């Protein structure tokens, strides 16, 4: 009802201020949407499901100490057969039906047991029935052929999201696409834990998360969806519409930390949960702690940092427009956002010890999807100092460039790619502060070290760049919330006349910015995950794992994917395991040991 009220208020406000401006607003709005739709021409292939697990042999050797399960999640099905025989093609990388992948690694067998599953079958079925009408995607822009169709889509979205909306836990477990992060051992509401125990089910928990206040519990072995729920099922006071796909976890206190964000008025509730699902609300605020106590904006937050004493929520200059109504009207989240170069980014610093919001610190505006580690200390003047490693972009153009992610340009496509980029550059214009149609992403953002110095309820933030072109940052979680030396991530290497576009794996020395890389022709490496060697005394003593798509320079039928294990010290290959003659896009992953204990979770 909050969003419905927001829609009515936004509509009345636009009419009251300028009745003719309402028409102008939506004309500009739909023109921008149509420009994005015209630019999204990438054709994605479906990834096959593999529900029946199969053991695959390893090439090389898995270290004797290395045993456990890697979960990865990402879009798997883009082309959906309709009831009328046509195909509904999704043209944005983020919006394929999410697949969960499970890799059970055995050093004893020197093999990997692999299975996967489409975890949004019911959502896919609804698309097959109605050609995607009334659906909300992250960035896919449906082709609209008439005003009548556009109006019908808008009505269906408001009906499903507001008028006919049912509690999540009363809907089919696979009726929503929840596929950004995969988290083993995530807390679940006590009532669900009791129900699973009464049904004789395993106490091993696997949860998929996204940037909405929506979670999906899966069977940790078969990957079958069990239920949908949200943070309101833990604590009724937590009723925000949005949340972070990347929660934070404190391995010392065993707390899980996240927030919920209400759209109208913008309101942030920051909370922690015990492993048993007991919630503590740590902050609840609608205004910044600046001189004028200005209102916070309903911004997009994908990830955030924590230290032993603080939670740091970034308020970027990328905000949902018209109180969240625009993305309901368009059916795509990224066309319901606007970027402002004129506003700073604010770091909201929240105490983990009952003091609530303690500072709102402005810094030169930037945008980020992903963060690495953070820690706090006290300087010589007795001031609290917070250091944070963040993968930063100068603006939000990346939001519109992402539609081609995980579909690298092949060497054979180089000439046509250069020509297309030239054509797009001539058409480019500003829409909601972002350039559309978007040029292809030339690199990732920079790995920056942000530092906040707190004093007397205020603070100052500065940063320095450690390394350029780094994304999907991970580190040894043995060093969570304390100063350390290494970050692992991905680096984007553009297509040339001699080689494919690719994603290399990199190891960044945080002290001097030097980089060691794993780089192989045609390899698009996914986010790395670090597992330390038990008993090891050095930070980089362990294995780095990734799922890699190997792309032929010309022929897609020759593509395949494989599990990659590297020696994290040297970034040299230790073992590989090919699991199929297909490619699989996965954004994020987690690893647990053979006892299902957390090693590195997302």
From TrEMBL:
One of its GO terms (molecular function) is carotenoid dioxygenase activity. It comes from the Eukaryota. The keyword Cytoplasm does not apply. Binds 1 Fe(2+) ion per subunit. Keywords: Iron, Metal-binding, Oxidoreductase. One of its GO terms (biological process) is carotene catabolic process. Its cofactor is Fe(2+). Fe cation binds at residues 246, 302, 370, 588. The keyword Oxidoreductase applies. Pfam families: RPE65. Belongs to the carotenoid oxygenase family. This is Uncharacterized protein.
């Amino acid at each position: 009802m909050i969003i419905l009220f927001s829609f009515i208020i936004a509509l009345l406000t636009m009419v009251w201020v300028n009745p003719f401006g309402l028409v102008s607003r939506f004309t500009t709005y739909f023109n921008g949407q149509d420009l994005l739709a015209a630019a999204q021409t990438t054709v994605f292939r479906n990834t096959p499901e593999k529900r029946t697990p199969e053991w695959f042999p390893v090439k090389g050797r898995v270290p004797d100490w290395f045993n456990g399960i890697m979960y990865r999640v990402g879009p798997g099905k883009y082309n959906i057969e309709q009831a009328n025989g046509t195909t509904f093609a999704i043209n944005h990388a983020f919006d394929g039906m999410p697949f969960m992948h499970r890799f059970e690694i055995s050093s004893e067998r020197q093999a990997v047991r692999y299975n996967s599953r489409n975890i949004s079958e019911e959502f896919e079925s609804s698309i097959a029935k109605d050609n995607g009408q009334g659906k909300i995607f992250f960035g896919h822009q449906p082709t609209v052929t008439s005003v009548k169709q556009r109006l019908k889509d808008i009505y269906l979205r408001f009906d499903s999201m507001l008028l006919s909306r049912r509690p999540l836990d009363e809907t089919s477990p696979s009726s929503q696409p929840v596929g950004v992060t995969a988290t083993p051992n995530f807390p679940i509401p006590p009532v669900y834990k009791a129900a699973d125990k009464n049904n004789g089910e395993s106490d091993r928990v696997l949860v998929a998360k996204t940037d909405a206040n929506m979670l999906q519990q899966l069977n940790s072995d078969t990957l079958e969806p069990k239920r949908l729920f949200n943070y309101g099922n833990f604590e009724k006071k937590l009723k925000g519409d949005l949340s972070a796909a990347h929660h934070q976890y404190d391995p010392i206190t065993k707390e899980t930390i996240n927030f919920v964000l209400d759209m109208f008025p913008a309101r942030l509730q920051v909370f922690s949960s015990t492993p048993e699902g007991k919630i503590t609300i740590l902050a609840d605020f609608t205004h910044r702690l600046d001189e004028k106590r200005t209102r916070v904006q309903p911004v997009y937050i994908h990830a955030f940092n924590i230290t032993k004493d603080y939670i740091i929520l970034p308020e970027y200059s990328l905000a949902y427009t018209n109180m969240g109504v625009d993305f309901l009207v368009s059916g795509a989240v990224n066309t319901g956002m606007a970027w402002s170069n004129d506003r700073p980014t604010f770091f909201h610093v929240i105490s983990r010890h009952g003091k609530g919001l303690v500072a709102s610190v402005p810094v030169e505006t930037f945008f980020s999807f992903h963060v690495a580690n953070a820690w706090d200390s006290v300087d010589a003047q007795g001031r609290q100092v917070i250091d944070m490693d963040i993968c930063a972009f100068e603006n939000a153009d990346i939001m519109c460039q992402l539609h081609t992610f995980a579909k690298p340009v092949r060497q054979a496509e180089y000439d046509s790619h250069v020509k297309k980029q030239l054509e797009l550059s001539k058409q480019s214009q500003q829409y909601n502060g972002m350039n559309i149609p978007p040029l292809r992403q030339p690199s990732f953002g920079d790995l920056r070290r942000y530092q906040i110095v707190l004093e007397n309820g205020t603070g100052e933030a500065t940063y320095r760049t450690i390394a350029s072109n780094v994304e999907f940052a991970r580190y040894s979680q043995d060093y969570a919330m304390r100063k350390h030396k290494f970050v692992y991530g991905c680096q984007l290497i553009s297509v040339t006349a001699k080689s494919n576009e690719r994603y290399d794996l990199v190891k960044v020395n945080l002290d001097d910015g030097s980089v060691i890389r794993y780089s192989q022709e045609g390899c698009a490496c996914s986010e790395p995950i670090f597992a330390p060697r038990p008993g090891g005394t050095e930070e980089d003593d362990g294995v780095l794992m990734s799922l890699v798509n190997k792309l032929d320079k010309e022929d897609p039928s020759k593509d395949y994917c494989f599990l990659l294990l590297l020696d994290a010290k040297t970034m040299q290959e230790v073992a590989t395991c090919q699991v199929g003659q297909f490619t699989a896009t996965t954004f994020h992953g987690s690893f647990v040991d053979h006892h299902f204990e957390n090693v590195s979770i997302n």
